[in-house]
Amino acid sequence: MKKIFNRILAAGLLSIGAMGMVTSCDYLDQKPENLKTSDMIWETRTDAESYLYNIYGYIWLSTDDPVVFGFADESSCVFSNTNVRKMVEGNWGPSNTLGDNKWNAAYRGIQKALIFEENIDRVPEGVLSSDLKIQYKAESRFLRGWFYWNILRLYGPFVIFDKPVEQDEDFNKYVRRPFEECVEYVCGLMESTLGELPEVWTSTAYLGRPTKGAALAVISQVRLLAASELWNGNPRFKDFKNKDGELLAPQTKDNEKWRIAAEAAEDVIDLGIYHLYRNTESGDRTFDPYLSFRDLFMSGNHAEVIFATHKSGDWQWGYDKRCNPKNGGYSMQNATQNIVDAFLTRDGLDINDDENYTEAGFAKEDDPAEYGKVRNEINRGYRKGESNMYANREPRFYASVHYNGRPALSAITVDDRNYFSSDKNKDGFGRAEYYYSGSSGAGTQMTDFTGYNVAKKVSTSSSIRNDQAVYRPFIHIRYAEILLNYMEAMNEYNPEDSKIISYFNEIRDRAGIPKIMATYPQDLGDKDKMREWILRERQIELAFEGDRFWTLARRLLYEKEENRKIYRMNVLADDQGQGFAFEGFYERKILQTRYWDNKMYLYPIYQTEIDRGRGLVQNPGW
């Protein structure tokens, strides 16, 4: 690591554009002029603030990596030569991390933050007030905690730096600290900001900067990880030690950690400033669960957002491009049949428990619920002629999954929509042709296609045909996740706790489906049954947001074959020109059984990082 940190110190203010791994934000991407000396940076408010904003650029977005893109069972990447496909085939390791060296990127951000905190008081008082210096140092500590948190959940125990490294530093003395010490360190950094970060920012111009709630939310995430099976007395880590024999993973299971995790989530809830977004907040007269769930990702200016990154111009375009069907899109980020089957019916039931659910034939009428009709006639619930597999499903399904026959999302005009259709299907709706001979079918050299794309977070105001995508923030943490954190943790500690059901009902009410007590009353208070339902709710509510990647890891669920067998529709069956009328498309087929080795619960540290500091030990199995 010496080489990495020396480079940072020598460069002073290294341009974000050269980092490769990092991203920048509109108002957070300003940098002091590269020719200025280190001393000059701390003479003006503009340069000092630009240094802080530069640190924000080290927050990575998970839009292009395995966290959301084809590693967990909810999604698959259609292109076989991509990094994530190599990973699920087991073709990666310390000498080949496929360009995904987040350890390196995070420590760059940490070192920059430490340099900022050590120097910000040098700015003259008349140039930058003491109050602002205190606030800015709190923001920097939050960012350090954020970077450490991301290292912790991806790699496990980390090396702690409390001050900027010197160029002549002996890096061999730096070793990874035990997991529990790392947990307390991250939580301590976040706690140190609570009296200095605001509960809310007074202007939307500050979107992307942390609040007290964001710091508490990170603590909630850290405590939930610490309570889960991966790190709570996992015997597989019994030999995970530093070179001097210091044990890096706790070997004693402690059920109290679930209580601590539940309390950490409740600290966020008790602030009383967050709630689940509803479309009526945006001017609609009546509540619409489909619009509520879809539109919450289109803005950062509502009370469900706890922490988001404000960045426009590129990730939105790339996301819309790969999630929309050909023509215009890439049909690249595919939902799997696994997640389609996980979504509930409109009665709040598992598809296998709902006697009204059928996969035979096609819907004989448009969705009578008319979800989304207040906005337009195109992008809403199911339509006449779509498979009954997709009829009468819960509203979140339509906001999350794009299936055969569903209108293209990022198409504004009739001409835009017709662009996605074959000549025989041009009717102004732009129905996606995922059957074999369709314009987005497997017959267009997409043999690994699942028959689905991701719809969640895709904008209906973009025009992908014209390569135009509208702005929206990247949401890292939202309130629904905190409610789910409480439910999951308290169920493990005290399944009789009434708030579990209360918070469950909040989420289901916004989702537009019956309460859990009405659908599965026999399971209430049963720890094992409720664990299944709570994890299922996480899978549905947080689909395609990255949570499934982390949840399967921390609960040791990747090794279960059911989570590695990936299903799709019968996309390779030639429809013989039947198109949307081809019923043989709607048959489940195995896409792949993904490779798994338990060492994959932690990412390998890139070998060059191990070589730079001889005190650094590799993760188990790598």
Describe the structure in your own words.
The chain is globular. It is built from 20 helices and eight strands. The protein starts with a helix and ends in a 10-residue tail after the last helix. The chain is 35% helix and 5% strand. With 622 residues, the chain is mostly helical. The chain has a two-stranded antiparallel ribbon with strand order 1-3. The protein has a two-stranded antiparallel ribbon with strand order 2-6. Mean pLDDT is 92; it is low at 1-35. Helix 6 runs antiparallel to helix 7 (179-191) and helix 6 (130-155) runs parallel beside helix 8.
Task: Give a brief outline of the structure.
The chain is mostly helical.
The strand count comes to 8
SSE class: mainly alpha
Helical stretch count? 20
Shape: globular
The separation of the N and C termini measures 19 Å
Flag low-confidence runs. Answer: 1-35
From the structure provided, what is the oligomeric state, counting identical versus distinct chains?
A: single chain
Strand content bin: under 5%
The share of residues in helices is 25-40%
Please state the CA-atom Rg, rounded to the nearest Å: 25 Å
Overall average pLDDT: 92
Task: Give a quick account of the main beta sheet: strands, pairing sense, barrel closure.
Answer: 2 strands, antiparallel
Strand order of the largest sheet: 1-3
Output the helix-strand order. HHHEHHHHHHHEHEHHEHEEHHHHHEEH
